[in-house]
Design a protein that fits this description.
By secondary structure, the chain is mainly α. The chain has four domains: 4-176, no CATH class; 216-317, no CATH class; 346-596; 614-783. Helix content is 69%, strand content 1%. It has 29 helices and two strands. It has a two-stranded parallel ribbon with strand order 1-2. The chain is elongated and about 155 Å long. The termini are far apart. The relative contact order is 0.04. The model is unreliable at 370-379, 420-430, 510-520 and 560-565 (pLDDT under 50).
C-alpha cells in the first residue's frame, strides 16, 4: 500500500475522486505525499473543476478578497460571486461550501425540520431561491461523489414537491378570496422553481370560458345594438383575464396569447358558427354579414381590448393588437378564404349585370337615334382638356386619401370628384355616353377600389403569411376582372357600335344643301373622337388605379429583385400587365380602324362639298362683269376649310401626340389627293385662275399655320404653283411650256405627266395646246410625219 502512494498518477487519481471533506483530510494527514505529488497546483485544478460546475468562470480581473463574506448569503451568493481568479479557487469554493454544507447535511440525513433559518422561515419566495441555489451547488458534489449527490438530490426534490404542494394549497385559498396580488406572489415562486406547467395548469383550471347558445340567425336583428349586446360581455371577460394574466404571469411566461387562442376556440368560433350557420345562411346572407361580423370582432376583440404587458414575451416588435389580429386570422382563415372566393365570383357577376343592363337600356336609343346629333353641349378642345385633367387629378387624390384621411374627408373628396365627373360628362361627353358611359366606367372602377379596400382589411401584420398572399391574389383577380369585363362588355361593344355608325353614315341621305350648311361637323366622326377621349380617360384611370392601388399597396411588388416570393409577384404583375396591354391594344386597334373609316367619311364629306358647292363659274367666270368681284377665296374653299378645322383637331387632348400627328397627316394627304382630283374636274380660265390661287393659298395657310404638319406642307406648296399654270396668258404659250417643264417649281411632288394633266384644264387648252407641246417636246404632234 505504501508503494502505491509513491506513484504520482495513482495519488492524483485517488485525490481527484475524493469528496471535499475527504480531500481536505487527505491533505492534512498525508502532508509528505501531498507535497510530493499534489501541492497547490493540484488544489487549483481540483477546486476549479468544482467551481466550473457551479457556472463560475475564471477571470484575471477577479479579486474575491474584495467580497465581504459577511454579506454573502445563500440568497445572493451566485449573484455576488460569478468569477474566480487563478490560484484562488480553493478560497472561493470555501465560501460556497460554508454557505450550503449545512443544508446538504440536513438533506443527506433527511433532517428537514427547521430546514430554513428563522430569518427565511416566513418568506416562501426566499425559500425557493435557497432551494434553487442548493440544487445548483450540489452539481459540485456530483463531480467526485455521485452517491452523495444522488441522496441529496432526491431528498431535495421531495422537499421541493412538498413546498410546491404547500404553495398550491395557499394559492387555492387566495384565489377563492380573489386576493390576486397574493396569488401572483405564489406564481412568481412557481416560476422561480421552474414549475411553469404547475402555474399554467392552475390558471387554466380556474378559467371558465363563456358559451353562447341562444342565437337564431333567422329571427335575429342584425343591427349594431344586437352585435354589441352579444360581444360586449365576451369582451369584458377577455379584458378581465388579460388584466389577471398580466398580474399573475407578468413577464415570466407568455400566457396571454395562449389564453386568447383558447377563448377563440372555445367561445368566439362557436358564436360565429351560430351567426353564420351554413345550413341556414344563403350565399348572399354570408357575403353581406361575414364582413360585418368580422370587423365587429376585430373592433371588440382586438382594437379596443386592454393592452397586455405579457404579450411582449411573444413578440416585442409587434403590438398586442397586431398579435391578436394575426391570431384571430389563423382561426378565421377558412371563413375568410371562403368569403374572398365567393365575393370575387359575386363581384364578377355584379359587373357583368351592370354592363348588361346598360346595354339593354341603350340598345333602343342607339337604334332609334343613331347618335345623329351632338347637341349644343360641345365645348372647345382647350376646355375639354382642362375638364379632363381636373377630373383625373381628383381621381388620383382619392387613392392617396385611402389610408391617411378621415372618413368625412374621404366623403368630401369623393363628392367633389363626382361633381367634376358630372361636369366633364355634361360638357364634353353627353352624346357619347350612349356608347361608352364614363359615369358607369368610373362607378365600376370605384366599386373595384372599394372591393379591394375591403379585402385588404382582412390582412394581418405578417406580410408573408399564406392569408396575406391569398388576399393579394384575390385583389389581383378583382382588378383583372375589372379590366377584362370593362374590355369585353363595354369598350368593345361601344367601339363596334360607333364604327358601325361611321360605316353606315351616308351623305346621300342629307335632305338638302341648306341642311348641310347648318351642319359643319361630320357627327359620327365627332362622336368617335369623343369616344376616343372617353376611352383614354378610362385607360388613364386604370393606370392610376394600378399605380396607386396595386403597386402602392404592395398587392404585387414592382421590385422583381426581391428573391422571396418574387416568382409569384412577377407572375401576378405580368398577368395584370398583359390584361392592361390587351385593353390598350383593343382600344388602339378600334381607334386605328375607326379613324380610317372616319377619315374616309370626312373625305367623302369634302368631296360632296366640292361637288355641291363649287360653282362652275368660280374658276371660269363667263361674264366680264364678274371680274369686278372681290378677289377672295370661294365659298366652297371657305366651307371646306371650316370642315377641316372642325375635324382635324378632334383628337386633341383625347390621345397621345403621335396618334394625333398620324391622324392629321393622313387627313392632309387624303385631302391633297381629293383636291388634286377636284382641280382636274374644273375648267379654269385665266381670269378664274386668280380665284383658284386664292383658294390654294388659303388651303396652304391652313396647313402651314393651323395644322402645322410640316411633312405634308410641300404638297400644298406645290398646289400653290399649280395655279400659275392657269394665270399665264394663252398668248405667252412659250412661258407656259417652260413652267410645265420646270419640275422644281412643284417641289418634286408632281411628275411632268401630272402637270400636263393640270394644264389640260385650261379653258383655252385647245388653242394653246400646239404651242405648249412645241415648247415641251420641241415640236407638236401634228408636226410628226410617218415616213
Amino acid at each position: 500500500m505504501e508503494g502505491l502512494i509513491q506513484v504520482e498518477t495513482i495519488v492524483r487519481t485517488i485525490a481527484r475522486n475524493l469528496d471535499t471533506g475527504d480531500y481536505l483530510n487527505f491533505k492534512r494527514i498525508n502532508k509528505l505525499t501531498y507535497k510530493d505529488h499534489l501541492n497547490n497546483e493540484f488544489d487549483d485544478q481540483y477546486f476549479t473543476a468544482k467551481l466550473r460546475c457551479l457556472g463560475l468562470q475564471r477571470s484575471e480581473l477577479t479579486n474575491n478578497n474584495l467580497v465581504d463574506n459577511a454579506t454573502i448569503t445563500s440568497i445572493n451568493i451566485f449573484d455576488e460571486i460569478k468569477t474566480f481568479k487563478e490560484g484562488n479557487s480553493l478560497e472561493t469554493f470555501k465560501i460556497f461550501y460554508k454557505t450550503f454544507n449545512t443544508y446538504c447535511n440536513k438533506l443527506s440525513n433527511n433532517n428537514l425540520s427547521n430546514f430554513f433559518s428563522v430569518k427565511y422561515d416566513s418568506d416562501p419566495y426566499l425559500q425557493i431561491v435557497i432551494l434553487q441555489n442548493i440544487e445548483l451547488y450540489i452539481n459540485s458534489i456530483r463531480v467526485n461523489d455521485f452517491k452523495s449527490f444522488t441522496e441529496i438530490y432526491n431528498a431535495l426534490n421531495i422537499y421541493k414537491n412538498l413546498f410546491v404542494t404547500s404553495c398550491l394549497n395557499e394559492m387555492e385559498i387566495k384565489y377563492k378570496n380573489k386576493e390576486y396580488d397574493q396569488v401572483a406572489n405564489f406564481f412568481k415562486i412557481l416560476f422561480k422553481a421552474n414549475e411553469d406547467n404547475v402555474a399554467i395548469d392552475f390558471y387554466n383550471s380556474k378559467v371558465e370560458y363563456p358559451v353562447v347558445t341562444d342565437i337564431n340567425p333567422d329571427t335575429t336583428s342584425w343591427d349594431e345594438m344586437f352585435l354589441n349586446l352579444l360581444f360586449d360581455p365576451l369582451r369584458a371577460f377577455v379584458n378581465e383575464q388579460i388584466t389577471l394574466i398580466d398580474k399573475l404571469f407578468d413577464l415570466n411566461y407568455p400566457m396571454v396569447i395562449t389564453f386568447y387562442e383558447n377563448f377563440v376556440q372555445q367561445s368566439l368560433l362557436n358564436v360565429i358558427n351560430l351567426l353564420l350557420n351554413e345550413e341556414i345562411c344563403t350565399k348572399d346572407f354570408f357575403l353581406e354579414k361575414f364582413p360585418q361580423i368580422y370587423f365587429k370582432i376585430i373592433d371588440k376583440f382586438c382594437s379596443t381590448l386592454t393592452e397586455s404587458r405579457n404579450s411582449k414575451l411573444v413578440d416585442d416588435k409587434k403590438s398586442f393588437r397586431e398579435l391578436l389580429k394575426n391570431t384571430l386570422n389563423v382561426y378565421l382563415e377558412p371563413k375568410i378564404l371562403n368569403y374572398l372566393n365567393q365575393s370575387t365570383t359575386n363581384f364578377e357577376q355584379k359587373l357583368n349585370n351592370q354592363f348588361k343592363n346598360f346595354q339593354l337600356e341603350q340598345k333602343d336609343d342607339i337604334i332609334k337615334n343613331n347618335l345623329s346629333s351632338i347637341g349644343e353641349t360641345q365645348v372647345s378642345n382647350s376646355d375639354s382638356v382642362e375638364n379632363k385633367n381636373a377630373f383625373l387629378n381628383s381621381f388620383s387624390k382619392i387613392f392617396k386619401l385611402s389610408k391617411l384621411s378621415t372618413k368625412s374627408t374621404q366623403t368630401t373628396s369623393v363628392s367633389q370628384l363626382n361633381d367634376k365627373l358630372n361636369s366633364l360628362v355634361s360638357k364634353n361627353f353627353q352624346t357619347i355616353k350612349k356608347f361608352l358611359n364614363l359615369e358607369l366606367s368610373f362607378n365600376i372602377i370605384q366599386q373595384t377600389h372599394d372591393q379591394i379596400e375591403l379585402f385588404l382589411k382582412f390582412k394581418d401584420t405578417d406580410s408573408d403569411s399564406n392569408l396575406n398572399l391569398y388576399i393579394n391574389s384575390s385583389c389581383e383577380n378583382i382588378f383583372k376582372i375589372l379590366i377584362d369585363t370593362l374590355n369585353e362588355n363595354h369598350i368593345r361593344p361601344a367601339f363596334r357600335n360607333a364604327i358601325a355608325v361611321l360605316e353606315n353614315y351616308n351623305l346621300d341621305e342629307m335632305e338638302s344643301i341648306e341642311q348641310e350648311k347648318k351642319e359643319q361637323s361630320l357627327e359620327p366622326l365627332v362622336n368617335f373622337a369623343e369616344l376616343i377621349n372617353t376611352g383614354d380617360i378610362i385607360l388613364q384611370m386604370i393606370s392610376i388605379f394600378y399605380k396607386n392601388e396595386i403597386l402602392r399597396r404592395k398587392i404585387i411588388s414592382d421590385d422583381s429583385s426581391k428573391e422571396e416570393h418574387s416568382n409569384k409577384a412577377i407572375f401576378l404583375q405580368n398577368n395584370l400587365i398583359q390584361a392592361k396591354k390587351k385593353l390598350e391594344t383593343t382600344i388602339d386597334n378600334f381607334v386605328a380602324n375607326g379613324l380610317n373609316i372616319g377619315i374616309n367619311r370626312l373625305i367623302d364629306h369634302i368631296h360632296h362639298t366640292f361637288k355641291t358647292t363649287q360653282l362652275p363659274t368660280d374658276y371660269y367666270p363667263g361674264n366680264k362683269n364678274e371680274l369686278t368681284l372681290e378677289i377672295k377665296p370661294t365659298l366652297c374653299c371657305t366651307k371646306v376649310i371650316s370642315i377641316l378645322d372642325s375635324h382635324c383637331f378632334l383628337l386633341n387632348g383625347a390621345t397621345d401626340k403621335g396618334t394625333i400627328d398620324v391622324y392629321q397627316q393622313e387627313i392632309g394627304k387624303r385631302f391633297f389627293q381629293t383636291l388634286v382630283e377636284h382641280i382636274k374636274t374644273q375648267i379654269i380660265s385665266t381670269e378664274g385662275a386668280i380665284f383658284l390661287i386664292c383658294d390654294m393659298n388659303q388651303y396652304y395657310e391652313f396647313i402651314n399655320k393651323k395644322l402645322r404638319q410640316k411633312s405634308i406642307l410641300p404638297y400644298f406648296k406645290a398646289l400653290k404653283n399649280v395655279g400659275n399654270l392657269y394665270l399665264i396668258d394663252g398668248k405667252d404659250s412659250k412661258e407656259l411650256g417652260k413652267l410645265i417643264g420646270d419640275l422644281s417649281k412643284f417641289e418634286g411632288i408632281f411628275s411632268q405627266e401630272e402637270i400636263y394633266e393640270f394644264v389640260q384644264r385650261r379653258q383655252d387648252w385647245l388653242i394653246v395646246k400646239r404651242d405648249v407641246e412645241k415648247v415641251m417636246y420641241g415640236l407638236g404632234i401634228k408636226d410628226c410625219v410617218v415616213m
